[in-house]
From TrEMBL:
Taxonomic lineage of the native organism: Eukaryota, Viridiplantae, Streptophyta, Embryophyta, Tracheophyta
Family membership: Belongs to the zinc-containing alcohol dehydrogenase family.
Species: Dendrobium nobile
Record's protein name: Enoyl reductase (ER) domain-containing protein
PROSITE patterns hit by this protein: ADH_ZINC (PS00059)
Signal sequence coordinates: none
Metal-binding recorded as keyword: yes
Cofactor(s) essential for the protein: Zn(2+)
């Protein structure tokens, strides 16, 4: 999938070399296959997983064992076509879906390619990512952008896809009142998508009041500030129910901790649904019997996404979703700017989406 180059006019990329060690170095691209395109990267966002790799060199069971180019939220301009590519042209502006699946397993054949065990995704160890001047990628995973959708919005299709997939999994519709636990980027794109799918009322909860104020300004009907302490759970659930003013039909846990899942299980109505989107803790202690067995609250997962880019692009093109307010910080692609961008993203606070303009 490419290697560190030796200087000259070669492609440059952000290489993760070790914990808190990110260097802009030459990157030799792999050869262009007949069904590939070469894309000049123009917008690349920083995801929480990118920060996690930088801080720990691992995410769940994915471990960075050797130098790796980081990044996977991206959009750019087609510069070269493989010999068999007919659907795109040089100069097209495209949003890039990062995951490359086998196409042969039972999940791929059933249309659930997000569950493919042989997924090779940009920036997912050991596959090199997209924070580079250029990228070689399969043409069928590059989606042409309409004239009124800019390249930053194209890069935002990746996080937005998480919200779209989650709302599809939970069957959000105009009769669904939604609670979102977690007001980070994924919580916010899930909020945007739930509204676009027709949800009449959305309440969001988080430990960070600044994030909650941002969520309110971007369309949440109400918000509730919560604490990390499980001792506050019962009181907080009452506040959440009061803020909703009616039954909570679906809760999205966009954090993935014992406390957030316990909040979801206690707040969601009998017969309702919880969609676990966040992956904070691998193991949790939660009240399953009282909620799942006694009240038939369903728990579903949302992993990656499938067939979401066309809808994301249409939601942005039509104005049903405006992702631009989520982009709070922008940086260039020098060594100094790359280091500063990741520091800003890691601090959180007012930083929602940190974007590189290459």
């Amino acid at each position: 999938m490419g290697e560190v180059g030796d200087g000259g006019e070669e492609n440059m990329a952000a290489w993760l070399l070790g914990i808190n060690n990110l260097k802009v170095l030459p990157y030799k691209l792999p050869p262009l296959g007949p069904n590939d395109v070469r894309v000049r990267m123009k917008a690349v966002g920083i995801c929480g997983t990118d920060v996690h790799y930088l801080k720990t060199m691992r995410m769940t069971h994915y471990v960075v064992k050797e130098p790796m180019v980081i990044g996977h939220e991206c959009a750019g301009i087609i510069e070269e076509l493989g010999s068999e590519v007919k659907s795109l042209a040089v100069g097209d502006r495209v949003a890039v879906e990062p995951g490359m699946t086998c196409g042969r397993c039972k999940y791929c054949k059933a249309g659930r390619y997000n569950l493919c065990d042989d997924t090779k995704s940009l920036g997912l160890p050991p596959i090199h990512g997209s924070l580079a001047n250029q990228l070689v990628h399969p043409a069928d995973l590059c989606f042409k952008l309409p004239d009124n959708v800019n390249l930053e919005e194209g890069a935002m299709c990746e996080p937005l896809s998480v919200g779209v997939h989650a709302c599809r999994r939970a069957n959000i519709n105009p009769e669904t009142n939604v609670l979102i636990v977690g007001a980070g980027t994924i919580g916010l794109v899930t909020m945007f998508t739930a509204r676009a799918f027709g949800s009449p009322r959305i309440v969001i909860a988080d430990v960070d009041e600044q994030r909650l104020l941002i969520a309110k300004s971007l369309g949440a009907d109400e918000f509730v500030k919560v604490s990390p302490s499980i001792e506050d759970l019962d009181q907080e659930v009452e506040h959440i129910k009061k803020a909703m003013g009616s039954d909570i039909d679906v809760t999205f846990d966009c954090a993935g901790f014992s406390k957030t899942m316990s909040t979801a299980l206690n707040a969601t109505r009998t017969g309702g649904k919880i969609c676990l989107v966040g992956m904070g803790h691998n193991e949790m202690t939660i009240p399953l019997t009282s909620a799942v067995a006694a009240r038939e609250v369903d728990i579903i997962g949302a992993f990656r996404y499938k067939e979401t880019w066309p809808l994301c692009i249409e939601l942005i093109r039509s104005g049903k979703i405006d992702v631009k307010p989520l982009i709070t910080h922008r940086f260039g692609f020098s060594q100094e700017e790359v280091e500063e961008a990741f520091e800003v993203s890691a601090r959180g606070g007012k930083a929602i989406k940190v974007m590189f303009n290459l």
